[in-house]
Structures are given as C-alpha cells and as structure tokens.
C-alpha cells in the first residue's frame, strides 16, 4: 500500500525538507512563498472526497428513509355506511350475535372486500372489514375497514377510498347485495381500535311512550373513570326519530379535543361527516341540550383522558314520530317562524321553506331575534353548510338580532341544514308594513327596523347598521368619528377605549412636551412625576421611580401579609407568587369569583341570567316585603350589600337582622324551595358608620349569616378587589338583580343580568350634577336603556378580570331614575372601601 505522505501529490511537507523528520510548523499567513509551494490539485482531491462521502451518506440516508419511513406501513381505518336495497330490516339485525346479523354482515364484508380488491390503489393495502351495526332504510350497514399502507401511499389510499363509487362492485356481487350508496370517512386508527375493543358499549331501543335514561358510568355518585371509551347506540322504531336530552352535563373542560368529550352522531358510525355535536365542559341545567336525529338511530360516544374528575352526564331519550313537515304557506300579516324544534338543536339534513305573502299593498319584513347556525371552521361568507336564504341572500353563523325586508308583499324564507353539525337555529317575527310609512312615529332604519325617534343621532348604533347615526349634526358636547362620521360624546375622546371602531377617538391623545402621560391618559407636568404625590389620580406617576426601591410601599402598591409591597399591577391570585410569604396567592383568598357554569348561554329574552351564572348573588327578603335588596357572598358566612337597605324607614326596623332572610343559589323568586337554594337568617348587620342617607356616600354594609353555607355549583363567593385594583373606563361588567324591569315597575322573577360599561368619573359627575363622591363609581350607558333599578340595590357589579375570576367592582347604590338618558347608575366603589371591608369582615 502506498503511503500517502510519501506521494509528493499529497505531501504537506515543504519540498526542501525532504528527508528530514518534520517538526510541526505553522505557516505565518504572510509567508506567501511557502504557501505557493503547495500542489494546487490537492484541493480538488479533498473536495472530491468530501462530495463522495456526502453522496454515500445521502444514498444511505435515502435508503434508511425509504425503508424505515416511506415503506414503513401505517394503519388506516375508514368508517361509513352502505345502503342495501334487496333486504328488509328485521329486529335480529339490532343484535350482533344473532345468525341473521352475522349472515348479512358476512355478505357486506365480502362485498367491501371485492370492492377494495378491484381498485389498484386500495386492494393491496386492504386488511379487514367489520360490520358494526345495521339500521332501517332498507338496510343500512355501518362498517369499519382497516388497511395497512406504506406511508408514502397513504394519501393516494385516502383519495381512492373517499372517491370510491359503489358501481365498481362487480355484477355478481351486486346481485347478492343490491347496494346503492356507499359512504366512507377516515378515522383515527387508535380511536377505532379502542372503541372496538371496549366493553363500555350500550344498546338502547326507545320504548313507545317511555323515556329511556342513561348516564356516564358511576353517575352521579362517583366521577366517570379515566381513559374510557364508551358508546351508546340509541334506536327508535321505524318511522320515528330520537329526541335526546341531557339533563345534567358536567365534564372536564376540553380544548382541541384533548381532555374529556362526548360526540353525538346522526348515524351509527363514528364518521365525522355525520357528527352532530361535540360536548364538553359544563352546561348549566337551563341550557337546552336537546337533539333530534334525522333517522331512527343516534350514536353517543364518550372519550375521557387520564384524569376524569367530574360527575359526567345524565341523558334521556324517547322516540317521536318522524315528520318532515316544516315551513309552509303563510298568509297572516304577522307571526313567528322558528327552525325545527327551536330552541333545541335542529336536525341534520332538513329543508324548510316558508312562503310568506301579506296583503297586496303591504311589504314584508322579518326580524331574527335569535340566530345560531354556527359550525366552527365553516365559512360565514359563502354559507356552504347550514343557512337561511331570503331573496337569494344567504345568512349563517351566529348573529345578533337583524332585520331583512322585501320590497314586495312576498317573501320566501328557506332554511337548510347539511348532514353534520347542528346548532340551536333561529326564531324570527315577520310582519307586514305600509311601504309608504314603515315605522309610524318612529325612525326607520335602513333595514326597515323601527327605533324611537330619540335614538336617532344619539351616538349609539341603535339600528345595528348605523343608519340612525348617519348625516347627524354633532352637538357641542360631541365629536365626529373619522370613518363612520358618527357623533359620539366628547368624553369618549382619549379614554383608552376605541369607541369609534377606527381608533379616531384615541388618536392625538399624547401629552404636550415636558408632560407625563398617566395610565389613565391624564397629562401632568414631567416635574410632578416621582414627587411622592399622586398627581395622576391612579398612582401611575409614582410607580417605577428610580429613587424608589422595587418593594417600596405606596398607596398604589399591593401589600403582602408580611408588609412587603409589590409594584406589579394586580399581583393577587394571578397564579404567580409575588410576595415572599405567598400571601398574594393564598388559597383561601383566591378561592373566589369562580363560575362553575361559565358557558355562554343562549336564552330567549336576552337578559335572564343563567342558572348558576352569578353564584355569589344573594336575594335579601325583608319580612312582609319579599325581595327587597341584593347582596354578594364573600365568604361562607359573610355578605356585602348596600347600607341604605338597612336604614329604618316608615317605622320599619330594616336595621334589625331578624327582619331579613338571605336566599343563596336562587335563580327564580318563585322557586325558593328548589334544591339548589339555601336559606339563612341574618345574625348581624354592620352598616358603614359614615353612610349618609342624604348623599348615599359610603353605601356599604356587611351581613353575617346565621350559619355558614357550603359552596356548591350554585353558591360561590365573589373576589373582593385589593385597593390597588383598577376598573378602567370603558370596561364592561355585569350588574345583576331581581329589581324592577322598568322604572316604577315590578321586580323580575328570574335573575336579570346586564352588560354595562364603566363611565368616566368626571363626565358622570357632570351628568349627575356633582353628586358623586370618591366612594362612588358610574356604570351604564349615557344613552340609557340598560341600568340597575329599584330592588337591585346592594347587589353586585361583577367584573371578570384577567385571572378569569369575577371581582366585586361595585355595589348597586343609587341613580336618577332607571335607565334614563344621561343618567347612568351609581355604585359603591368597592376598592375605595377596601380598608372598611378588611376591618369589618377580616377578609
Ligand atoms: C334603587 O332604588 C335604585 N338606576 C338602584 C339603582 C338605581 C336606581 C334606583 C340605578 O334601589
């Protein structure tokens, strides 16, 4: 073998050194002479070697990839159904152990095998098929087919299976089984396997006139087990459909199908294209979780992950005669139409057409009060899935109330649902109107909706298409938004809220030179920053000052139990320990503001709260008066309310605790004996000593219950904000109560909720003729319409904060009437009362 080094071509020795043992020598870069002496071809050799090695490793890599990955087989599963014409359904087909089932199942398996084997992209990969169930029509067979395919051919297989046509079955087979439709849908192989091997399968057939119940294993005494795959096959007699209703639904929250979930199928196969709904989390009992099948079968599946901790669900179903009747010819001048079974979920595969015709000289308009035709991921522009069509215009998704009108006395409304994913549908009023005068004594919106004259040019989009706010002359107290040209109150300028929708009200809000802009947008001279005085009013000019060490205490820093001060805003209960002693995350303090039923609800009427939605809301009944005031639960024994509720009046000793009864977990005043409701007498009332029944300053009181309550899904405490927590102008909050529905009117039976916004203090003080003190905050709408009212007093103004907990921002206190224009409601400022609360409750 040749020694490379002896070959001059490869020698790295200087030629002149031939024959000497070389010493290691590093060439100085400047020693050009020595460098020049090298044979230049050596470079090509090195490059050649490198390229050669690269080619070899690439080839090896490709081979490994080809055999280890590309050729590696992956399991593929498809599920679906085939319809068989030349068989008649018999009861024995409902039971997979009967000879009848097995015989027909074998024929279907043979047919599927032949169908697959006849296709070059499918046949070689086919492993096995199973028939999982049959149903009527003539006979529909539900199957699972398994394949094993090299990964690089998986996509080809997918396309081939999904595009398979039943006509490809050979003639001989077709004479045995006359099949006229074939559906296939890919299925996660692991999921398919776990469902097939599972013992948690139930087969239920509705009994005429009876309700059949079923629930998750262990319900309601023990939580459902972890890692479960359960399925319930629901059947009804031929000519019937299934009405399924979940009476209780309490499962873990799920996200992108991790966690626990239930799926409902309008079929007996777990094919996604037949999925009606995925359910997870918790639904309040009042949520109408009712579903209807389009045929006489339905499948319910349950998947749980490794940590099932919730009670699960209890459901019941019954059969109702199948009817395809919906829509119709309407000749009345007004009425109501709804999607089938509203507010239950409408069925898949339905079409309803309403042909509305009113007297010849009138036009028709229709107002959709509720509109939920939503399928996550579906396009709301093209409405290719479920939709309502009027005058060739399609509507779909989830919509706020809207009006559609026609320029003639006729209107055709068409509702169409496709075969998957249903929603609660719609309810709508239609009516005829005089084409010359659509809104007598009212303002006519562009969409022909009628609003009160006073709502025109008031800065609020009452028509929902802004037509009431166009071409208005802005008054001296208003400014004009840039894009929409709408007039808005001037105090919306620079308040940190995008009131115009184009931020034009929040532009040019910077402070002049040598000024500091506070967090509340106020401008103060730069020199006032860090002067140890709160010039901003929100303390932001005294935070982060260089001479102030990070943990220095000010009025605006959070104080830990050990007196350490935290400059971070809202450090309490945010999941991060900021205090060395951990007191900002104290479990007792942070066990508040939770809503077991946090799901968005869709209740007819709009302002009814949902059961359990505000579990800290308390109704205070005064003997002989019934409900008189609201209050908020803040601990197992303590309530916060308004001091003015407990002032002796007209000879009645409202300050006497024995006069009062507290109802907790209450939803409907007429159902105070419901099992969710807990009743307590009051042991002690402490009203703020400085409460003034002239100014309503310091309108706060603490009530002690006769004995502690146990927290439940319907009874939970609200969080008390630290004195440093701010509820900024424009923030939306909930006011709740059983107070009067209109000024001077009677109270509500069902707890009401209203979404209102914090209003700028100075502007509100102007509107209320300087009657505010620092212990009051304003919330509502300057335009009026939504407000607290008599009987709501003492109740909570609840704010959902970034830690996903509800905080008591205010206590309903007073107002100039209810819901009047320019007269927002006034609330006790709870943060301003923090020290009083601490002293009087220990919280
Ligand atoms: C009341 O009399 C009352 N509009 C409470 C709140 C409001 C008005 C009156 C606010 O209890």
UniProtKB/TrEMBL annotation:
Signal peptide positions (record):
none
A Gene Ontology biological process noted in the UniProt record is: fertilization
The compartments listed are: Membrane
Q: Where is the SEA domain?
A: 74-189
* UniProt KW keywords: Disulfide bond, Hydrolase, Membrane, Protease, Serine protease, Signal-anchor, Transmembrane, Transmembrane helix
* Peptidase S1 domain boundaries: 603-842
Q: Which Pfam families match?
A: CUB (PF00431), Ldl_recept_a (PF00057), SEA (PF01390), Trypsin (PF00089)
* Start and end residues of each CUB domain: 200-320, 326-433
Write down the membrane topology: Single-pass type II membrane protein
Please give the catalytic activity noted in the UniProt record: Preferential cleavage at 371-Gly-Ser-Arg-|-Trp-374 of glycoprotein gp43 in Xenopus laevis coelemic egg envelope to yield gp41; Cleaves various synthetic substrates with Arg or Lys at the P1 position and prefers small side-chain amino acids, such as Ala and Gly, at the P2 position
What PROSITE patterns has UniProt attached to this entry? CUB, LDLRA_1, LDLRA_2, SEA, TRYPSIN_DOM, TRYPSIN_HIS, TRYPSIN_SER
What EC class does the entry list?
hydrolase
Listed under GO cellular component are: membrane
- Show the GO MF annotations: serine-type endopeptidase activity
Q: Per its database record, what is this protein's job?
A: Mediates gamete interaction by affecting the vitelline coat.
Can you say what this protein is called?
A: Suppressor of tumorigenicity 14 protein homolog
UniProt organism field: Pelobates cultripes (Western spadefoot toad)
Q: What is the lineage of its organism?
A: Eukaryota, Metazoa, Chordata, Craniata, Vertebrata
């Amino acid at each position: 073998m040749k020694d490379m080094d002896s070959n001059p071509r490869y020698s790295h020795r200087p030629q002149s050194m031939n024959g000497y043992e070389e010493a290691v020598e590093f060439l100085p870069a400047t020693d050009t002479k020595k460098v020049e002496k090298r044979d230049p071809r050596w470079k090509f050799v090195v490059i050649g070697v490198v390229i050669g090695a690269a080619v070899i490793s690439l080839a090896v890599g490709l081979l490994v990839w080809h055999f280890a990955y590309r050729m590696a087989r992956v399991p593929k599963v498809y599920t679906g159904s085939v319809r068989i014409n030349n068989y008649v359904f018999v009861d024995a087909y409902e039971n997979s152990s009967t000879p009848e089932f097995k015989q027909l199942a074998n024929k279907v398996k043979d047919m599927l095998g032949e169908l697959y084997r006849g296709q070059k992209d499918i046949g070689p990969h086919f492993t096995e098929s199973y028939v999982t169930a049959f149903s009527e029509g003539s006979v529909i067979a539900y199957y699972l087919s398994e394949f094993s395919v090299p990964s690089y051919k998986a996509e080809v297989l997918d396309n081939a299976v999904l595009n398979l046509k039943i006509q490809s079955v050979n003639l001989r087979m077709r004479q045995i089984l006359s099949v006229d439709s074939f559906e296939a849908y890919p299925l996660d192989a692991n999921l398919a396997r776990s469902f097939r091997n599972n013992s948690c399968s139930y087969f239920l057939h509705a009994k005429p006139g009876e309700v059949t119940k079923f629930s998750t294993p262990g319900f309601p005494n023990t939580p459902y087990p972890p890692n479960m795959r359960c399925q319930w096959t629901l059947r009804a007699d031929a000519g019937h459909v299934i009405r399924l209703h979940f009476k209780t639904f309490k499962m873990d929250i799920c996200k992108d199908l991790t966690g626990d979930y239930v799926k409902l199928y309008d079929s007996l196969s777990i094919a996604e294209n037949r999925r009606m709904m995925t359910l997870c989390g918790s639904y309040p009992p009042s949520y109408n979780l009712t579903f209807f099948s389009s045929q006489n079968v339905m499948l319910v599946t349950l998947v749980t992950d490794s940590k099932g901790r919730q009670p699960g669900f209890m459901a019941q179903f019954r059969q109702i005669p199948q009817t395809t009747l919906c829509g119709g010819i309407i000749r009345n001048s007004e009425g109501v139409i709804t999607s089938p079974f509203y507010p239950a979920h409408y069925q898949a595969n339905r079409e309803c057409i309403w042909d509305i015709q009113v007297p010849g000289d009138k036009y028709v308009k229709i107002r959709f009060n509720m509109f939920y035709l939503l399928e996550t991921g579906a396009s709301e522009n093209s409405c290719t899935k479920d939709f309502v069509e009027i005058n060739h215009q399609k509507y779909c998704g989830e919509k706020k109330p809207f009006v559609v009108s026609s320029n003639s006395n006729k209107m055709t409304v068409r509702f169409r649902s496709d075969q998957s994913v249903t929603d609660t549908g719609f309810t709508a009023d239609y009516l005829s109107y005089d084409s010359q005068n659509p809104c007598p004594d009212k303002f006519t919106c562009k969409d022909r909706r009628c609003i009160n004259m006073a709502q025109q040019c008031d800065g609020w989009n009452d028509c929902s298409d802004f037509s009431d706010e166009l071409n208005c002359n802005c008054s001296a107290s208003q400014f004009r938004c840039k894009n929409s040209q709408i007039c808005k109150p001037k105090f919306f300028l620079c308040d940190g809220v995008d009131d115009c929708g184009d931020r034009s009200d929040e532009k040019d809000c910077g402070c002049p030179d040598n000024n500091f802009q506070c967090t509340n947008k106020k401008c103060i001279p730069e020199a006032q920053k860090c002067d140890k005085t709160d010039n901003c009013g929100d303390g932001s000019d005294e935070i982060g000052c260089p001479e102030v060490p990070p943990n220095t205490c000010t009025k605006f820093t959070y104080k830990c139990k050990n007196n350490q001060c935290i400059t971070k805003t809202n450090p309490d209960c945010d999941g991060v320990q900021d205090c060395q002693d951990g007191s900002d995350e104290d479990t007792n303090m942070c066990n508040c503001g939770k809503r077991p039923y946090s799901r968005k609800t869709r209740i007819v009427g709009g302002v009814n709260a949902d059961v359990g939605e505000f579990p800290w809301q308390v109704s205070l009944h005064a003997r002989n008066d019934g409900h008189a005031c609201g209050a908020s639960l803040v601990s197992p024994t303590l309530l916060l309310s308004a001091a003015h509720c407990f002032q002796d009046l007209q000879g009645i000793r409202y300050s006497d605790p024995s006069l009062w009864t507290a109802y907790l977990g209450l939803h409907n005043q007429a159902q105070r004996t419901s099992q969710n409701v807990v009743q307590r007498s009051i042991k002690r009332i402490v009203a703020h000593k400085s409460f003034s029944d002239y100014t309503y300053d310091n309108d706060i009181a603490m009530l002690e219950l006769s004995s502690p309550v146990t927290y439940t899904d319907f009874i939970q405490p609200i969080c008390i904000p630290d004195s440093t927590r701010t509820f900024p102008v424009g923030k939306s909050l909930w006011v709740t109560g059983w107070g009067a529905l209109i000024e001077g009117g009677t109270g509500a039976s069902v707890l009401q909720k209203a979404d209102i916004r914090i209003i700028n203090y100075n502007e509100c003080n102007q509107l209320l003729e300087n009657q505010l003190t620092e212990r009051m905050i304003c919330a509502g709408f300057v335009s009026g319409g939504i407000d607290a009212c008599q009987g709501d007093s003492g109740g909570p103004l609840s704010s959902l904060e970034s830690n996903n907990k509800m905080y008591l921002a205010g206590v309903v206190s007073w107002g100039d009437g209810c819901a009047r224009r320019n007269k927002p409601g006034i609330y006790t400022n709870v943060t301003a009362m923090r020290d009083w609360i601490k002293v009087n409750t220990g919280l």
